[in-house]
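@channel sequence for tomorrow's demo:
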Amino acid sequence: MPALQSLRQATPETWFDSEPAQLLYQLEQQLLLPQLAGLPAQPWLWISPSPRWLQGAALGGRGLRLYRDGTGYAGEARCALPLPLPNESVHAIVLQHVTAADAALLLAECDRVLMPGGKLFLSSLNPFSPYRTQWRRHGMVVRTPQRLRQLLEQVGLECGPTRYIGPLWPSGAGGGTMAPLRAACLFSAEKRTFALPGPTPLKVRWQGPIATPGMIRSILETHENH
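structure tokens (generated this afternoon):
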């Protein structure tokens, strides 16, 4: 897997490079990095919406950092789908706001390259949040949390509870317990591992004669006479 390289490339700015998006960026880093730090130092993959969001992807071990670039990906490699990684070659994957255009294909690729027991973390804007007024005029396509969970399960990943993060309102104000209306959602999923089937029990057949009621009565009478 390639070594980490500089990601300072001249790319068009997106909404994710704007000031309102920085609150989400900082919050996601605070939530993701501690969880990833507890995983084994295995190869990993991190895909973000822009190069700026990759600056905080400072994990140990070997990894590949990419960002969304039109219909493909750029960064430490330039590619489209399928990903340039062998089957079951990474232990952790982070997808930050990159599941709009080709979500089903991308998630299927993530399932392919994840090791058994590997973890996937996915963040996405919440189209039900009042916070959507910050980004809806930027032409972004955002999938619902329910649809994302469905796609994760369809490729065979086992999802944990959906976590809603960020503010409710464009002003950044909180929202009490109205979690499903927060600005973004964060999923964690695991690639299922299947245990090998155990040995099939042998069927034991009784080779002797079958005791009939008459035989049982005869044995009891013989026993009483002696």
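heads up for whoever presents: The chain has a mean pLDDT of 82.
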